Amino acid sequence: MQIYLPIAELPISILMVLGLSGAVGFISGLFGVGGGFLLTPLLIFLDIPPAVAVATVAAQVAGSSMTGVLTYWRRRALDFKLGSVLVSGGIIGTILGVLFFNSMRRLGQLELVITLSYVTLFTFIGGLMLYDALRAALRVRAGKPVRRRRRAGTHPWWMGLPLRVRFYHSQLYASVIPIAILAVVIGFIGAVLGVGGGFILVPALIYFFRIPPAVVVGTSLFQILVTMTGATLLHAVTNQSVDMILAVLLLLGGVIGAQFGGRAARNLNVDSFRLLLALLILSVGLRFAIELLIPPSEPFSVVLPESAR
Amino acid sequence: MKWALASFVIGLGALGLPGAARAESLIASVSSHQIQISSNYTGDQVTVFGLIERDGKTTGRGDPYDLVVTVRGPQRMLLVRQKERLGPIWINRTQRRFPDSSVFLTVASNRPLREIISPDSARRDRIGLMNAQRVSDVMPESYPDMDRFREAMVRLLDDKGLYSEEERGVTFLSPTLFSAPINVPATAPTGPYEVEVLLYAGGVQLARQTTNFEVIKTGIEQGLASGAHDRPLLYGLATATLALLFGWMASVVFRRD
Fold it and tell me: Which spans of this chain does the record mark as coiled coil (chain A) (predicted)?
C-alpha cells in the first residue's frame, strides 16, 4: 500500500516505512541513541530528498525519545541535572556547528567534510569501544576478575577539575567543565552531521565519566528530546522540509520499536550492551569508508539543489 | 545561360514545394489538463491525441506522416556531479550546472527518431532527449565536457523514469488521427507541463502544435504542502506537538510498571 508524501513529493510504501522505523526504533530504545544516524541514510536511499529526510527524522527522533524519557524517568534512571548541563552546552555547540556548516558550504566542501567525519568518527569510536568490550569479555572468559571501574578515591584527572558538582542520579561527583566541553563538542558534531549525537554521548559518558549505563541512556534521551524538538521547529521554519505524513509513519513504527528496545535493554548485561553498540557504530563507519574507497560504478550523480524543491 | 536559368527555376520549385506543402495543420489536445495528486497517487497517464488536417490544395505525398510528441516538465536547475579519485578516496570533484532543465522529459514518436529526421534537424528542432533541453546556446557555464555531463544526466534521469524516449509511443488510429499515451511517474514534479507535437514527412517539418497540462496537489496533500510554506512556525509546532504526543501515548499504552 502506497501513500503520497506531500513535502518529499513521492509515494512510498507504508509497510516498508513502518518496518524500517520500527527496526531503527528498537535500536534507539535499546541503546538510547536517537537512531537518526541510521534512519537518515536509509530514507535518502529510498530517494527521499536529503533535506526532507534530515528534517523529518528530527521530528521522529523527538517523538521516540519522548517515550524513552518517560520510561526512564519513571524508573528514576534519568538525571535532569546532568541533562540540563548537557543541553545548555549542546546549544552553544549547535550554534558553532551551524556557523562551521555554512562556511564549509560556501567553500563547496561540505559533502566531503560530512563523509570524512562519518568515517573517522564512527570507525574511531566504534573501534575503540569494540576493543574495550572485547578485552573485557576476554578477561571474563579467562576467569580473571573484571577490573573494577569504580575504586574509592581514584578518578581520572578531568573529573577533579574545579567547579565540581554532585550528580546524585548519575553517582557522579565531577567538575562541570569537561561535561560542558563534551556537550559543546556533541552539539557541534550534531549540527554539522545532522544527527542527535547520542551515539557519541552515550559511550563518552560511560567511558569518561563512568556513569551507570541505565542512567546514561535516560539522560542522553533527555538531551536528544530537547535538541531534536528544537531542530524540528528550526527545519520547519527555515527550510519547510518537514514532511508531516512521513513523520507520522516514522513515529508509529519508531515509538513501538523503541518500546520493545527499551524492554530488551533491561535484560541485556553491560558487556554485551557495549559490544553490540560498538559493532553497530563501527559498521556504519565502515559503510561510509567503503563508499569513499571503492571505485564507484556510477561516477555521476544528478542533484536538485534543495531550494528548487 | 538557358540551362542555368532552367536549373534556377527547378531549384525555386524545389524550394517552394515545402512551402506549398504547409497546407497540413495539426489539431492536438490532451486527455486531461490537470493531474491531481491525492494521498493514493502513484503516477498517472495523459494521452496526447490529435488530427492532421489537410485542405484541398494539399498535394499527394510520397512520404508517410511522422509525428514527434515532446513533453517537457517543470524547469529547475540541475547539478551533475562526477566522482573522481583523490589519493585513496573517491569524491565529487567536478560539477556542471544545467539551469532551466526540465525535470521530466518524454519524447514519443511513431518510429525511431533517426528514421524520421537527420541528426542535424533533430538538433535544430530540439528533438530527442539530448536536444530537447537546449534552450539556448548561451550557457552561463560552458565547458568542453558539457556533453559528457549532459549524457550522464539524461542516463540517470532515464533510470529514474523521469526521462524516456518512446520509439513507438505515437499510434496512428487512422492515416490522420493519432494518439500518444504519456506516463507521468509519481516522482515527476508538480507544475506546468508543455506538450509539443511536430508533424514531419520525409524529414521535413510540416506543422507544429502545442498544448499543456499541469500536475498539482489536491486535498490533504495540498493542505499540508501549503501549510508548510505559508505558516511554517505553526506547521512546525504542530509537527513537534504531534511527535511528542505520539511518544507520550506510546509510553501510556505500553506502560507495564
Answer: none
Question: CA separation (Å) from A118 to A51, A113, A286, B6?
Answer: 18, 9, 9, 79
**DSSP per-residue letters across B164-211:** EEETT--EESSSSEEEEEEEE-TTSPSEEEEEEEEEEETTEEEEEEEE
Pairwise CB contact (< 8 Å): A63 & B152: no
How many percent of chain B have pLDDT more than 70?
84
Phi, psi torsion values for A62, nearest 5 degrees: -60, -45
**Alpha carbon of B114: minimum distance to chain A alpha carbons (Å):** 27
SS3 B37: strand
Q: What CATH number has the domain spanning B17-72+102-217?
A: 2.60.40.3880
Which whole number is the average pLDDT over A78-102?
A: 82
* Domains in chain A: boundaries: 2-141+158-293
- Cβ within 8 Å, pair B248-A67: yes
Q: Is the pLDDT of residue B234 over 90?
A: yes
Residue to test with chain A: of B94, B244, B255, most A Cβ within 10 A: B244
- pLDDT 10s digits, B110-157: 999 989 999 888 888 888 888 877 655 555 556 778 888 888 999 999
Q: Is the ipTM of this complex over 0.85?
A: no
Q: Where are the domains of chain B?
A: 17-72+102-217, 218-249
Looking at residues A222-249, what average pLDDT do you find?
Answer: 86
Q: Which residues 48-77 of chain A have a CB within 8 Å of chain B?
A: 59-60, 62-71, 74-75
The enclosing H or E element of A52 equals helix A50-74
